[in-house]
Amino acid sequence: MAGSRERQRSFLPPGQSMRPPPAEERHRELALADTADPRACHTGIAWVRETLTEWQLLDHSQDALLIAAELLSNAVRHGGGIHTLGLTRHDERLRISVTDPSPVPPRLREHRPDSIGGHGIFLVDRLAHDWGCRPHHRGKTVWADLALLPATARSGDGEHP
Q: pTM score, two decimals?
């Protein structure tokens, strides 16, 4: 499959890289085989960074990487391992999704800034435009959508609108 993508890229007209990725590249998935090894989080984060670079979405990488890290680590800690990590670009949204073998959905709890740990879903809730969970076979997929605002539309002080 990678060879066919490379072949397609070599025939693209000049300036194509400034457009959104072709339809077949708007969704990518990384299979991680239900691994509960924390090193899979590092693999997933590196894959997200690489994909965002290829899709020319580095302006959104900090929030996307943080959300991916939280969803991946939650799958390892609470979900029995990571089955898949997905990235989907649709119009002005980037969806990050993590599937794990546990059917138990994440819960947004009262945030206590002075507590050690327990900040993951709170951070996802604060950074994402929307997020949720849906059943997937015997497990679940937790997803978060980021708005793909142009750099000029976002505030310069790092805060989100």
A: 0.76
